[in-house]
Design goal:
The complex is a heterodimer of chains A (117) and B (115). Chain A has 117 residues and is mainly β. Helices cover 0% and strands 56% of the residues of chain A. Chain A is built from no helices and eleven strands. Classes of the chains: A mainly beta (117), B mainly beta (115). At the A-B interface, β6, β9 and β10 of A face β4, β5, β9 and β10 of B.
Chain lengths: 117, 115
């Protein structure tokens, strides 16, 4: 199956700093990638849809100025958490979708555990 | 609004028994439904996909059923093993509140298989 690589897997940062998370699709081109956030014992919540070469689409309640998404190439999307606060501490997961014959296959990165202290 | 519901309570079973997890959805008619496994601190991993015209799908010890009338999917693990302990998520390709198509996940059910 396709591989999506996410980096870093863990990061601890100080309150007020920014953190960048990278998501790469290693063996297929992904015009669209998705960023999810997951709090403990909760489901994955879609934050935004990352579109190659254009602006990301953010879901309700997600601040676009706080969570900057860049999808500069068909294999790389980045999420930057700006001016991080302790409440931003969460598990962030990216996903690249491949649509084949009307079926969506989702391939997920390993996830990034962000802790803001 | 469209919803996906899974039993949020953990399911504890004895090794060797069959685990059955439930996924219900509302206000939607999906063309297919997917099941994923998620281990702590890891991203979900795809397990099975079942289409609307399929009543049942099997893969090794896994079996998924899909009842479009009841709007329900059941996920079975037979001869369960401690290594099957994980959270299992069902997912549908739905429209988000912002009108985008994306995989939307249920809250997941945590399965614990006791040796």
């Amino acid at each position: 199956g396709a591989v999506v690589s996410q980096h870093p897997s863990r990061v601890i940062c100080k309150s007020g700093t920014s953190v960048k998370i990278e998501c790469r699709s290693l063996d297929f081109q992904a015009t669209t990638m998705f960023w999810y956030r997951q709090f403990p014992k909760q489901s994955l919540m879609l934050m935004a849809t990352s579109n190659e070469g254009s602006k990301a689409t953010y879901e309700q309640g997600v601040e676009k100025d706080k969570f900057l998404i860049n999808h500069a190439s068909l294999t790389l999307s980045t999420l930057t958490v700006t001016s991080a606060h302790p409440e931003d501490s969460s598990f962030y997961i990216c996903s690249a979708f491949r649509r084949t014959g009307g079926i969506t296959e989702a391939f997920f990165g390993q996830g990034t555990r962000l802790t803001v202290v | 609004s469209q919803k996906i519901e899974q039993n949020s309570e953990a399911l504890n079973i004895q090794e060797g028994k069959t685990a059955t997890l439930t996924c219900n959805y509302t206000n939607y008619s999906p063309a297919y439904l997917q099941w994923y496994r998620q281990d702590p601190g890891r991203g979900p991993v795809f397990l099975l996909l079942i289409r609307e015209n399929e009543k049942e799908k099997r893969k090794e010890r896994l079996k998924v059923t899909f009842d479009t009338t009841l709007k329900q999917s059941l996920f079975h693990i037979t001869a369960s093993q401690p290594a099957d302990s994980a959270t299992y998520l069902c997912a549908l390709d739905m429209l988000t509140p912002k009108g985008r198509r994306a995989l939307t996940f249920g809250s997941g059910t945590r399965l614990q298989v006791q040796p």
